[in-house]
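note to self: dont lose this again. the chain is below, predicted strucutre after it. 43 aa total, dont forget to put it in the shared folder this time
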Amino acid sequence: MNLEKQHSKLLKLQAKADACTSRKEALKILKKSDKAINKLSRP
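---
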């Protein structure tokens, strides 16, 4: 998997999280960030 792509996804998700207003949206962002982190931690 492309590590740069995952890092950029995490940065975009962080920006979305800062602007997040609802719990439902926050949970969705957390789920996506967990997926990206898992992809980065794979060997």
